[in-house]
Amino acid sequence: MAQLWGGRFTKETDQMVYDFNASIGFDKRLISQDIQGSTAHVIMLAKQGILTDTEKTSILEGLKGILEDVKSGRLEIDEKKYEDIHSFVEANLIDRIGEAGKKLHTGRSRNDQVALDMRLYTRLQVTETDELLKELLEVILTTMEENTETYMPGFTHLQKAQPITLSHHYGAYFEMFQRDRQRMADIYKRMNYCPLGAGALAGTTYPLDRDYSAELLGFYGPTLNSMDSVADRDYLIEFLSALATVMMHLSRFSEEIIIWNSNEYQFVEIDDAYSTGSSIMPQKKNPDIAELVRGKTGRVYGALMSLLTTMKGLPLAYNKDMQEDKEVAFDAMDTVKDCLTLFTGMLKTMKFKKGRMATSAMNGFTNATDAADYLVGKGVPFRDAHGIIGRLVLYCIEKNTSIDALSLEELRSISDKFEEDIFDAVSLKTCVEKRLTVGAPGPEAMRQVIEKHKQYLKEDTIGNLMRSK
After folding, report:
1. How many CB atoms neighbour CB 389 within 10 A?
2. Straight-line distance from the first to the last Cα atom of the chain, in angstroms, rounded to the nearest whole number
3. 346 vs 351: CA distance, rounded Å
């Protein structure tokens, strides 16, 4: 058992206690960040005269060799031999370069080391998630641009409400995922400060240059309270909260695709690559990716609630409970990235049955509001117009027809205010195109929004943050 703290103890830790305490099984994925942080620490120590240039060179070469050997498979991370990734790196460094390796930990605690590793790893995950969200937005925007005149019903309460376009419907999800990207940028700005040098909780007596360490690692600067530095997991809770919101948006979109894919709707056809069949029913083509994305949402919610619960009663500063941040966070990060990748692929290859969508809009009285507005234009008070159209809809239901399929005589039997121009007023094309206010589904309004979205996607949001200090 390779331990960093054995001097105080006179006998071996019980094997079950050791296994329960160990984190190597999951924190081994932090090896790149651990060596990245150690590299910056060593360069800073040498700059401050705490290490000699010879020691610096030897340690840096050793660290580089360990990372290369792990990535190539020449060096295995033995989970039975090491307690955590930090002890693995340090023990192997000492084996390779001797006494100089023992100086790696000078001016540093495992508390600020793990705080740094997790912050570096989370920062990387924020940028990778942001990029996947951008790819999803690009696919959504392409569909929007191609379907400004693809008519479909808009819904409230899962009841057909008013006619819209597919472009407009997709535009709602563009707004959601755009806000998700904005949250990624917000998280990046708040978390991008370096805890290295905070020590166990009270800093160190060594003359460290924390600003220099932060600069080497791409942070805006050092954290300003050593206790908070090692005890803070707010950035991770924020990220998990943002991931939970991403999954909520993906789940809502998945639910609609599942409905649209049903035999009753038949609005879309999901590509074979993103569908599966039944083991017993040969006719089935199931929307499994959408269903799994919807199902995995609860898993990400669980990670957020787990970490919130872990942190809620912890006194300052570091407590071993905080080791529980990693497994749930890693799983949530992996889950969201997988869901975004697969969902984007499913959307990109999905086909729309445009005729079916338009027919559904015509058959669902989605033009009833426009018929009422028509009567208002003829001088009928809106409340009276509302009642007239309600009776008209009831008449259509009894006759199993639609408003636009009635004759003028039938319409005038309900109200003598109807004229020949009613048919143009309640056509899908008119109902959609005359809605030109900002945010409405009219094609011209949508084209203006699409241009704004194009400009937004040209911006390198987090890239700009990475370059700013």
Report:
1. 24
2. 42
3. 10
- Indicate if 87 belongs to the active site: no
Look-up of token digits 């937005």: 137
Distance CA(365)–CA(361), nearest Å, equals 7
Instruction: Answer yes or no: are the C-beta atoms of 230 and 200 closer than 8 Å.
Output: yes
C-alpha angle with apex 316: 50 to 228, nearest 5 degrees?
55
Q: How do the residues of the chain divide into helix, strand and coil, expressed in percent and rounded to 5?
A: 65, 5, 30
In 11-109, where does DSSP find H-type helix?
15-21, 24-27, 31-47, 53-72, 85-97
| Torsion, Cα of 89, 95, 97, 99 (10° steps) | 100
Handedness of CA 389, 394, 396, 402 (dihedral sign): positive
CA-to-CA distance for 372 and 397, rounded, in angstroms?
17
Among 58, 226, 278, 279, the one annotated catalytic? 278
- What pLDDT shows up at residue 461? 79
- Strands (E) across 302-420 are located at 351-352
Over residues 96-140, the pLDDT tens digits come to 999 999 999 999 999 999 999 999 999 999 999 999 999 999 999
Q: How far apart are CA 249 and CA 336, in angstroms?
A: 11
pLDDT tens, position by position, 350-409: 999 999 999 999 888 889 999 999 999 999 999 999 999 999 999 999 999 989 899 999
* Single pTM value for the model: 0.92
- Tell me, yes or no, if 278 is annotated catalytic: yes
Query: Using an 8 Å Cβ cutoff, are 9 and 17 in contact?
Result: no
Q: Exactly one of 23, 32, 157, 213 is catalytic; name it.
A: 157
For 162, the enclosing helix (H) or strand (E) is strand 159-165
Which own/partner contact pairs does 386-392 have at CB distance under 8 Å and 24+ positions apart?
Answer: 388/414, 388/415, 392/368
DSSP states of 261-310 as a string? HSTTT--EE--GGG-B--SS-TT--B-HHHHHHHHHHHHHHHHHHHHHHH
